[in-house]
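Field notebook, page 608. I keep forgetting to write these up properly, so this time I am using the form the group agreed on. The chain and the ligand, calcium ion, are recorded exactly as supplied. Prediction of the bound pose follows.
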Amino acid sequence: GGRPHGKAGKLTFETVAPNTLDAVTIPAGYQTEVVLRWGDPVEAGAPAFDLHNQTAAGQSKQFGYNNDFVGVLPIPGSKDRALLVVNHEYTNEDLMFPGFTGLDNLSVEQLKVAMAAHGLSVVEIERVGRTGRWKPVKSRRPHFNRRITALETKFELTGPAAGTPLLRTAADPSGRVVIGTLNNCAGGVTPWGTVLSGEENFNQYFVGGDQAPADAKPKLARYGFSTTARYPSGNRKWDRAQERFDLAKHPNEANRFGWIVEVDPFDPDAPPRKHTAMGRFKHEGANVIVARSGHVVAYMGDDERFDYLYKFVSDKKYIDSKAPWARKHNLSLLESGTLYVAQVAGDSPATEIDGSGKLPSDGKFDGKGKWIKLVSGNKSEVPGMTAADVLTFTRLAGDAVLATKMDRPEDVQPSLRTGKIYAAMTNNTNRGVGTNAPADEANPRNANKHGHIFEIVEDRGDHTGTSFTWSLPIVCGDPKAADTYFGGYDKNAVSPISCPDNVAFDSAGNLWISTDGNALGSNDGLFATAIEGRERGHLKQFLTVPKGAETCGPFITGDDRSVFVAVQHPGEITGASVEKPASVWPDGDYAKPAVIVTWRTDGGPIGS
Ligand code: FEO
Ligand code: CA
Ligand code: CA
Ligand code: CA
């Protein structure tokens, strides 16, 4: 046949121009289509979506709101069937409920709809024809389809902090069973076929921090909870539906969120788990690589201005086998291990880092770093903190060992081709402002609006080690501006990029970057660049998303034929509503978050 073969490689696609259209735009020779949108049926018995009659029971069986992380896991033995696993990070009630006049005026049932619209979805999908086009399975009853919600799904806590007093509540004196997951942002797929998902801005769901116990307040404050107002601005008012969100009554409930969640999509009956051994912070996500020794190493970011980069090294070793006993073993890998935080230093004189983004005289933002051990199993390495303290209040442990304050660490992912690790520092407009930490070589711009990419190379290629070198391959912004850097590539030939959020790789090792909050004024999008060799830094825009939307995912399938993107919060513009939408994507009526798939019309590898 005429279908081109060959692996992904040089990025020859036609660059997409920045724009402000209410549409998804893609290069010539590609097609794109919605796979699933908010409200589509997921579980058996899901009612048809009815905007004007939403129920929590219905939403608990339908595709949730604000899709973020996307993972595609092939069903063993099939090239044409897979499980699509998606995070639903948060809700836009003003764009969900007709006649919205404020959270205080929502009914308790509507609040529960919002809770059910959070969480994750697992959906069986199947390839259409011979290209990279995929659709939800409709032909037979999908076996694996599942909704996980903030409203009622039971999670198991694992690891050294599980069951400790900090995690016990009136409803759960065991300290081991949590209802729901909150603000699931990015994530990763493990080699043993599960999905990791990060609980990020969980503070916004709780009220009553002003009435929390005095000893809890400094910790709550470090995690962004208000300790002075009952209802901090931006609060979601869920205490009206479930009392557990009131810290005045249930202060430990807050400690049961902010973890890495592991979901086994191939076992619909298995409770999802929250792994305390991986620490508690505003987890963007987690991505793992198997070290040469066989230990599993997870890289993680805490997405807050001036917060930290972490890694987790498992105690046990990965077993590379599909046998059920091996999978059972691998499912326990993230339950015990050692947690580290990053401390980095530049190699150029501090006087050459002036906060303007000007390259130092050695021509690179680069240097060395250390992984500082915080806790190993039940043994704390931080004076004055127990292991359970370190795991539950990991930010305070990072503060105590003087971890390096970064410009909002978002997605962190190792390249399975080179073993190098890439982290998106999305932006930090407070850098160097007032008494805040000034620019350093790793975060080289004050009032950093556009963000940068941070590359880690572990010494001797050992992912379990404690020392590394680092550099910034891309300093984002308008390539015409002096404070940007694209790996030394000709800046006249690259696309403008702002606010990198998620990273992914194709099988050739090209780095794909999606953005959130383009400070250059155009819509967000998806970009790709080679990261090795002469093309390093040749960044090209592949796709743009509609007005008000953020580009999440992305996920490139193992055969390189499809790229999945989560179009999150289309139409999220102040003052917009169902009646006066800022976006009518994807169906022409009102805005709906949706996962799309983009493929090459001729079936060839994406990007090439
Ligand atoms: Fe939910 Fe850090 O983006
Ligand atoms: Ca340098
Ligand atoms: Ca994100
Ligand atoms: Ca983000």
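OBSERVATIONS:
- The pocket of calcium ion (ligand 4) is lined by residues 410, 501, 516 (CB under 6 Å).
- Confidence is low (pLDDT under 50) at residues 1-6.
FOLLOW-UP: compare against the apo run.
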